[in-house]
Amino acid sequence: MLQTVSEMPEMAAQMPPDMKDQILHSYLMAEGITIMASDLNREKPQEGNTIQLCLNCDNDKELEKLFAALSKGGKVVEPLNDMPWGGRYGSVTDKFGKTWVLNFQKENAMK
């Protein structure tokens, strides 16, 4: 699945016109693994911020354990928080300079 900035009018209105063809959301699912990607980056690209890895966790305990482990020796970019869409989300840059986005979607949160 690919979705460009121009395919989401709310985002396109906030972006410069030259970003309309950039990938806002994408994912590939196969045999128990999901790979997600986007062209968007809030910072000037440099070694370490040109990729973000996303981990979708099965529960709060796993989310907190992985967040703490990846934060050790690195820095918290966005603390773990409950999100309006019913999940918990946060991001860290690990000690190697790689950014990780961690997410846990709570059961029945969207109902």
Describe the structure.
The protein has 111 residues and is mainly beta. It has two domains: 1-38, no CATH class; 41-111, Signal recognition particle alu RNA binding heterodimer, srp9/1 (2-Layer Sandwich). Helices cover 14% and strands 39% of the residues. It is built from two helices and seven strands; from the N terminus they run βαβββαβββ. The protein has helices at residues 9-12, 60-71, and strands spanning 2-4, 23-30, 33-37, 52-56, 75-82, 87-93, 99-105. The chain has a four-stranded mixed sheet, covered by helices on one side. The protein has a three-stranded antiparallel sheet with strand order 1-2-3, with no helix packed on it. A hairpin with a 2-residue loop joins strand 2 (23-30) and strand 3. The longest helix has 12 residues, at 60-71. The chain is globular and about 40 Å long. The two termini are 24 Å apart. The mean pLDDT is 82.
